[in-house]
Each structure stands twice: as structure tokens, then as C-alpha cells.
Amino acid sequence: MVLDNLGSSLRGSLDKLSGKSRVSEDDIEEIVKEIQRSLLQADVDVSLVMELSDSIKTRALEEEPPGGTTARDHVLSIVYEELVDLVGESTDIPLENQTILLAGLQGSGKTTTAAKMAWWFSKKGLRPAVIQTDTFRPGAYDQAKEMCSRAEVDFYGNPDNDDPVDIARKGLEETADADIHIVDTAGRHALEDDLIAEIEEIEAEVDPDRNLLVLDAAIGQGAKDQAKQFDKSIGINGVVITKLDGTAKGGGALTAVNETDSSIAFLGSGETVQDVERFEPNSFISRLLG
Ligand code: GDP
What we know:
Elements: H1 8-15, H2 25-41, H3 46-62, H4 71-87, E1 98-103, H5 110-123, E2 128-132, H6 140-151, E3 154-156, H7 164-174, E4 180-184, H8 193-206, E5 210-216, H9 223-233, E6 238-242, H10 253-260, E7 264-268, E8 276-278, H11 281-289
Parallel strand pairs: 1-4, 1-5, 2-3, 2-4, 5-6, 6-7
Antiparallel strand pairs: 7-8
This protein binds guanosine-5'-diphosphate (GDP).
Residues 104, 106-112, 137, 143, 187, 242-243, 245, 268-271, 275 line the site of guanosine-5'-diphosphate (GDP).
Domain SRP54-type proteins GTP-binding: 97-290
Organism: Haladaptatus litoreus
Protein name: Signal recognition particle 54 kDa protein
């Protein structure tokens, strides 16, 4: 079994293939319908779902099962491969010195993610520092400071300075001993021009190794515009999906992955610094289908 959790209806449809040596168009149609239902419910964009459906149908009907493979297992492995292709592999995050810039709208979970990622790097034996450049949201400084103290990682911010670029520059100087610099940025409620201008200036100052877009799991199709804008202005190398402990399954974030030609780096599943994991295709697919 390649997937832990297929969802009971999909499993039922696949199990109908047991004992068959060939699959019919009707068999595949039923399986594809089950997958479509789950993915659309999980907020995956309809055009991505249609692409996946077409690939599964074509391959399941045209490819010969390798010798000794049952029709059921053959279809299951095609479904699995196509789902992995849909969600992508995890963003490469080497365990070495680097600067990571976080982008996203207000409330997406950037500040929380900065502290969580710092905690994650510290558990890998590296020395991270979080630099808080959000001068826009009241409370962002205190929140970041408090979370970094809980994560026991270095922190730089200055509530008396209202120039985010200056904070970024000083932050990098003050935390020069750290291996990993995670730069948190301000969000806005929408993609306003001043938000984009500000993050472009911070990015020019900081010269990050990777820019991650932080998205709330409930984002739905709003992910597309955000991904496009941030990608155009600073370039997006990976996505973080937050709040996966809620009911939303985060399928909308795949639109951002597709739009930026990137991949998913981390998942957030709670409000404490430990509630973070690296993206892993299998469990994410199980979550989408389950
Ligand atoms: P920012 O404006 O992008 O910096 O967002 P914050 O980091 O302040 O997060 C906004 C709210 O979402 C806060 O109340 C966080 O505690 C909460 N939050 C962030 N990540 C998660 C998560 O993975 N799960 C849950 N349940 N809440 C989260």
C-alpha cells in the first residue's frame, strides 16, 4: 500500500477492480469521479483536478500493467504517481547557512511560521535568528519576541523603528552569529501597492536564499492572485501552509505552487512553536483524499 488513507469511497471503487485483469472505461470513470470529489472538496482548483483526471484516465487505459501486477494495483500506482505529481515534492531546504524571507497577507500566519521554522532549524542543530520587520501590525513585535523566547532562538526587532528596511539591515548585523536568518515581513489585508513596494525593498536589502509564501489552509482560490503578485515582485521559491489543524485541507495552496512553479516547504498545524512539520507528499495526499 503506497498511501495510508485513500478515503473509503475511493478504496471501495479500487477494490471493485480486484480479480480483474483489465480495467474498463467505466471502472476508471468511477475512480476518477471519487478522486475529483475529494480534491474539489479540499479546495483544489478545478483545472488542476481536470488535468489530473485526464492523465489518470489516459494512463490507466493505455499503459499495460507490468507482469505480475493486478489491474487494481496498476491503477492504484498510476493514481498515486499522478497525485504526487499534483502536490509536488517538498521544497529543498538544505541544513546550511541561509536567509529565508517570509511573504504573505496579514493573518496568514507569517510571524507564527517564522518562530516555528526557527524552532525546527534549532532542533536540527543550527542556530537560527528571527528578524521581525513588521512595523505595520500592532503587536507583531511582542508576538514574535514572545514566540522566539519560547522557541529559545535569537530574535531581533525594534518597536521604536518604523523603517522595515532599516530593521532588516540592523537585524542581519545584530544576529550575524546565527546560521539561519528568518526575516518576517508585514502583511496587509489585501495586495496593496505599498505592501509590494515594501517587500521588494526588504528583499533587495536582505538578499534572501529563498522566499516562502505563507498561506492559510482556508485560502481557496484567492491563492492565485497572491502567488502571482508575490512571485512577480520578489520570486517565490516555496509555500508554507498554515492552520492545517482546522477543517480546511489546504488544496487551494496547490494553485500557488502551480502558479509560482515552486513546491511546499512546511506545514503548520497549531499555535505553538512545535506545531510545524516539513511537507511530505504521502501524508498530504492522504489528507486531501481523506
Ligand atoms: P501574520 O499576520 O501573517 O504574521 O499571522 P500570525 O502569525 O500572527 O497568525 C495569525 C493568527 O493565526 C494567530 O492568532 C496565530 O496564532 C494563528 N495561527 C498561525 N498559524 C497557525 C496554525 O498553524 N494553526 C492555528 N490553529 N493557528 C495558527
